[in-house]
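Sanity check

After download, print the first record. It should look like this:
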Amino acid sequence: MTAGRTREIRFNVFGRVVAITATATGWQPFHVGDGTRRPASFVIPDFVTEDELAQYLFDLFHESASPSNGEVTRLG
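Expected structure tokens:
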């Protein structure tokens, strides 16, 4: 994370878009919909690195996987 700046990383998490904002104090997750964005009800510990985010989301939401949506992928 970069101190003093925020930026957003988006993931497709088993068919749902999740935005993760990196702030000076840690990760802030959001659910993204059709023109909407709302705070997510899960926590990403600050020790999870940017490179570990996809695996963390996979581990957290693996029960949502389906044959047609079986991956967590970084978008953009």
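If your output differs, re-run the checksum step. Summary of this record's structure: The CA atoms of residues 17 and 41 lie 14 Å apart.
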